[in-house]
C-alpha cells in the first residue's frame, strides 16, 4: 500500500505543480491583457513584477520536479500548501478591487470573502501540517481554539465588509495568521529541532500582513496606492512560498522528521528497545539465581520471583505505552537494580536523589544508562563506586541526571553492544523532543543530563489531561 | 467471611489455596462455570470475590457486574497476569474493588487484601529494644537500604515529634560534608517513601525537609515503655545505630528511677 502510494505520488505532484504554474502564468497574462490600458495602476511596474513572479514559479516547478525524485513524502504537503498560497494570492483583495472579475457586485463581494477564507484556510493548513508532521503534540483544546478563532474572524470579516467598513476588515488579515505562524515557529523552536530556518518564514508572513495593512488603508481611500503596491504583495507571497518550500526540502533531507519516517523510526526504536531488553542471558541468569535462592530458602526465592515478574510486567507495559510517570520509571529502575544485585551477589550503590518527579519519561528509557554504568562503567568494582539518579527543579525547568564515577568511555565511540543507550536517546528525542547530553571522561565517570524545560513540562501535562 | 474464587486454571488455584488456608475464611473455588457461580451466590451471600479477568468462557469484569446485582457491598479483587488498573474498570465495579493481584501471586499482597476485605486495621509492630526491626501483619518489613531503615528508626525514636532534615543529617551522617549528606538524605527519604507506599502503610507525612510520623497504627515497645505499659527494656536500644547511645542513656536513667520506685 505504502509502496504504491510512493510510486504514484511523484507524478501527481508534478502534475499539480505544472497546473499551478500554468494557472499562474495564464492569470497574469489574462489580467495584463485585459487591463493593459489602465495607466493609473502603473502597468509597467506590474508587468515587470509579473514576469519576475512567473520566473520564480518556473524555478520552483523545476525544483519540485527534481525534489519529487529525491525526497519522498513531504513534497505532498508542500504542494498542498503551494496550491493554497496560489489560490490565496490569485484572489488577493486589491486584485479583485482593481480588476473586478465581473460587473456583478455580489459576485465580487463573494470573491473577496472567499479570498479571506482561503487565506485563513492556508494558515490552518500550515499549523496542522506542522502539528501532524513534526509532532508538536498540540492539544485538542488548542486546535479547537484555532478553528473557532478562524471561523469567528471570517464572520467578523464578512460583517465588516457588508457594513462597508472594508478597511477595518482588512486589518483582520494580520491578527489570525500572525498568531498562528508565531505559534508554529515558537513551538518548533522549542521542540524537535532548533530551526533558525523557520524564522524567515514567520518574518515573511508578518511582512505580508504588513503589506495587507497598507493595502487596506489604500483601498479604503485614506491614502493613494504607491507604485506597484499590489505587485509587492504578489512578490511577497511568492517569496514566502519559496522560503517555506526550500525550508521543507532542507529540513526533510536533514532531519527526516517527516511523519511517515517518524512513525517508522519510532516503531523501529520501540522494537529495538524491546529486543534490547529481552536479553536471553539476563533472563536465564536471573532464573538460575531464583532457582538457587529457592534452594536456600523459600522466602528469598519468592522475593526474587516477585521482582522478576514485576520486571517482566514493566516490559509488557513499556511495549504498550510511550510515556510513563517518572516515579513509575524509578520503580522499574529499582527493580532492575535489585535483580542485578541479586544476580551479582553484591549490592550496587545506587543513590536516588529525587526532589522533583512530576513529569513523564519514555518507558524503560533509564535502564540502559544504568546498565551501561554497571557493565561498562564498572561502578561495582570500585569500593566507592556509585550511580546517582537525581532530578531537581532548576531555573527554567527540571534537570534529570544520571551520574556515575566508573571508568568512563569515549562518547564518540559508544560500543556497538550498547545499542540500548542510542535507542534510549532516540526515544527521548522522538517522544519528548529532548536530547540527553552524554558526557564521559575516561577514568572519572559518566554523566547523562536531560533538561526538561518548562514548555516541555507544560506540553506534557496538557497532553496528559486530554 | 465468605469468599468465592473464580479462575479457569487449576494451577493458579492450587497455589492460591495454600495461601488462603492460613486465614479463617470460608472460601469456595469455581472454574469459569457461570451457572454454578450464580447458583451459589443466590443461595449464599459472598462477601468478596477473587476473579480472574481473562477466562475462556466468561470475563471477570462482566461477572463482577452480575455479582453486584446480588450483593451491592461485595468486594472484588481481580487476579490477572496482565497490567490492569482501576481506570480500566467501570465506575460501579471500581468503587467495590479492593485491588489487583498480579500473577504470580504475592502472598503479602494477598494477606493485605484479605485484611482490607475484613475491614481489619493493619498494625505495625516496631521492636526497638535490642536490634531495630519492624513487622507488618507479623512479617518483617524489608527496607531497601540500611539508611532508610535507620531514618525510620529515628522517626520512631523522635516519638511523634517532627524530624527535620538538619536533625536527621546530623544524626545519620555526622561526619559528612553537607552537600553529600543531603543527597544521601534524599535517597533515604525516597526509599523509605517507596517502601511504605509499597506496603500501603503510609504512616509518614513527607513534608518539605521534615518528616512527621503518624503513630496511630504503630505499636512500639519503646513508646509503651515510656508510658509504663511494658518493662522489657534490657539495656539495649536500637543497638546497631550510633545515635542510639543518647536514647540508651535516657532509658537507663528511666529504668533506674523506676526500680527505685519513683
Give an overview in words.
The complex is a heterodimer of chains A (466) and B (262). Chain A is an alpha+beta fold. In chain A, helix 5 (105-133) packs parallel to helix 7 (166-190). Chain A has 16 helices and seven strands. In chain B, strand 3 (48-52), helix 3 (60-70) and strand 4 form a beta-alpha-beta unit. Chain B is built from ten helices and twelve strands. Chain B is an alpha/beta fold. Chain B folds into two domains: 2-120, Rossmann fold, CATH 3.40.50.2300; 124-259, Arc Repressor Mutant, subunit A, CATH 1.10.10.10. Chain B is 42% helix and 19% strand. The interface between A and B is medium-sized, with 20 and 16 residues.
Strand content of chain B is 15-25%
pLDDT below 50 for ≥5 consecutive residues: which ranges of chain B? none
Shape of chain A: elongated
- Strand numbers in spatial order across the main sheet of chain B: 2-1-3-4-5
Give the N-to-C terminal Cα separation of chain B: 49 Å
**Which structural class do the helices and strands of chain A define?**
alpha+beta
What shape does the CA trace of chain B take? elongated
- Helix/strand class of chain B: alpha/beta
Q: What is the percent of helical residues of chain A?
A: 55-70%
Quote the distance from N terminus to C terminus of chain A: 32 Å
Order of helices and strands of chain B: EHEHEHEHEHEEEHEHHEEEHH
Beta strand count of chain A = 7
Keywords:
A: Heat Shock Protein 90, two-stranded antiparallel sheet, 16 helices, 69% helix, disordered N terminus, B: 262 residues, alpha/beta, Arc Repressor Mutant, subunit A, five-stranded parallel β-sheet, four-stranded mixed β-sheet, 19% strand
Amino acid at each position: 500500500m505504502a509502496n504504491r502510494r510512493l510510486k504514484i505520488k511523484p507524478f501527481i505532484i508534478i502534475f499539480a505543480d505544472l497546473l499551478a504554474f500554468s494557472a499562474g502564468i495564464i492569470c497574469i497574462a489574462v489580467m495584463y491583457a485585459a487591463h493593459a490600458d489602465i495607466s493609473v495602476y502603473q502597468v509597467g511596474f506590474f508587468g515587470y513584477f509579473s514576469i519576475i513572479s512567473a520566473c520564480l514559479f518556473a524555478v520552483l516547478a523545476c525544483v519540485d520536479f527534481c525534489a519529487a525524485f529525491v525526497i519522498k513524502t513531504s513534497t505532498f504537503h508542500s504542494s498542498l500548501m503551494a496550491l493554497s498560497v496560489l489560490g490565496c494570492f490569485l484572489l488577493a483583495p486589491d486584485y479583485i478591487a482593481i480588476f473586478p472579475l465581473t460587473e456583478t457586485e455580489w459576485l465580487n463581494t463573494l470573491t473577496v470573502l472567499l479570498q479571506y477564507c482561503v487565506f485563513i484556510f492556508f494558515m490552518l493548513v500550515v499549523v496542522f501540517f506542522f502539528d501532524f508532521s513534526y509532532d508538536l503534540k498540540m492539544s485538542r483544546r488548542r486546535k479547537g481554539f484555532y478553528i473557532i478563532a478562524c471561523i469567528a474572524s471570517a464572520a467578523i470579516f464578512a460583517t465588516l465588509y457588508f457594513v462597508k467598513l472594508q478597511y477595518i476588515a482588512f486589518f483582520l488579515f494580520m491578527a489570525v495568521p500572525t498568531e498562528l505562524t508565531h505559534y508554529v515557529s515558537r513551538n518548533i523552536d522549542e521542540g524537535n529541532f532548533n530551526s533558525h530556518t523557520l524564522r524567515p518564514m514567520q518574518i515573511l508572513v508578518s511582512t505580508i500582513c504588513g503589506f495587507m495593512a497598507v493595502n487596506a488603508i489604500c483601498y479604503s481611500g485614506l491614502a493613494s496606492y504607491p507604485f506597484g503596491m499590489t505587485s509587492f504583495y504578489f512578490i511577497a507571497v511568492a517569496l514566502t512560498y519559496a522560503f517555506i518550500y526550500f525550508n521543507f526540502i532542507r529540513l526533510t533531507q536533514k532531519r527526516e522528521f517527516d511523519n511517515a519516517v517518524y512513525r517508522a523510526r519510532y516503531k523501529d526504536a520501540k522494537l529495538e528497545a524491546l529486543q534490547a531488553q529481552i536479553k536471553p542471558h539476563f533472563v536465564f541468569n536471573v532464573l538460575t539465581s531464583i532457582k538457587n535462592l529457592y534452594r536456600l530458602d523459600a522466602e528469598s526465592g519468592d522475593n526474587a520471583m516477585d521482582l522478576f515478574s514485576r520486571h517482566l510486567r514493566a516490559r509488557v507495559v513499556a511495549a504498550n505505552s510511550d510515556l510513563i510517570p517518572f516515579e513509575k520509571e524509578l520503580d522499574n529502575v529499582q527493580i532492575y537494580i535489585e535483580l542485578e544485585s541479586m544476580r551479582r551477589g553484591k549490592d550496587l550503590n545506587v543513590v536516588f536523589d529525587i526532589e522533583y518527579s512530576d513529569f513523564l519519561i519514555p518507558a524503560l528509557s533509564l535502564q540502559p544508562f544504568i546498565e551501561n554504568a554497571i557493565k561498562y562503567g564498572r561502578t561495582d568494582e570500585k569500593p566507592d563506586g556509585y550511580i546517582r539518579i537525581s532530578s531537581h527543579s532548576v531555573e527554567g525547568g527540571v534537570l534529570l541526571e544520571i551520574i556515575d564515577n566508573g571508568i568512563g568511555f569515549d562518547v564518540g565511540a559508544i560500543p556497538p553492544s550498547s545499542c540500548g543507550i542510542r535507542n534510549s536517546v532516540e526515544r527521548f528525542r522522538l517522544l519528548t523532543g529532548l536530547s540527553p547530553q552524554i558526557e564521559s571522561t575516561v577514568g572519572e565517570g559518566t554523566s547523562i543530563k536531560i533538561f526538561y524545560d518548562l514548555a516541555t513540562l507544560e506540553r506534557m501535562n496538557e497532553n496528559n489531561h486530554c | 467471611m465468605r469468599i468465592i474464587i473464580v479462575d479457569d486454571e487449576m494451577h493458579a488455584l492450587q497455589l492460591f489455596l495454600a495461601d488462603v488456608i492460613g486465614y479463617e475464611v470460608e472460601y469456595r473455588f469455581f472454574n469459569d462455570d457461570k451457572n454454578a457461580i450464580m447458583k451459589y451466590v443466590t443461595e449464599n451471600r459472598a462477601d468478596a470475590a477473587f476473579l480472574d479477568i481473562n477466562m475462556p468462557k466468561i470475563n471477570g469484569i462482566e461477572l463482577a457486574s452480575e455479582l453486584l446485582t446480588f450483593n451491592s457491598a461485595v468486594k472484588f479483587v481481580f487476579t490477572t497476569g496482565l497490567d490492569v488498573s482501576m481506570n480500566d474498570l467501570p465506575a460501579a465495579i471500581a468503587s467495590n474493588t479492593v485491588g489487583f493481584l498480579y500473577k504470580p501471586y504475592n502472598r503479602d499482597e494477598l494477606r493485605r487484601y484479605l485484611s482490607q476485605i475484613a475491614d481489619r486495621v493493619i498494625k505495625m509492630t516496631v521492636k526497638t529494644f535490642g536490634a531495630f526491626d519492624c513487622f507488618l501483619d507479623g512479617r518483617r518489613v524489608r527496607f531497601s537500604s540500611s539508611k532508610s531503615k535507620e531514618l525510620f528508626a529515628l522517626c520512631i525514636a523522635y516519638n511523634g515529634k517532627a524530624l527535620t532534615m538538619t536533625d536527621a543529617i546530623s544524626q545519620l551522617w555526622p561526619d559528612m560534608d553537607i552537600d553529600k549528606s543531603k543527597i544521601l538524605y534524599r535517597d533515604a527519604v525516597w526509599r523509605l517513601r517507596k517502601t511504605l507506599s509499597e506496603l500501603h502503610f503510609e504512616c509518614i507525612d513527607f513534608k518539605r525537609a521534615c518528616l512527621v510520623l503518624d503513630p496511630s497504627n504503630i505499636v512500639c515497645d519503646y513508646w509503651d515503655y515510656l508510658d509504663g505499659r511494658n518493662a522489657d527494656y534490657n539495656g539495649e536500644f536500637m543497638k546497631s545505630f550510633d545515635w542510639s547511645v543518647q536514647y540508651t542513656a535516657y532509658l537507663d536513667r528511666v529504668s533506674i528511677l523506676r526500680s527505685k520506685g519513683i
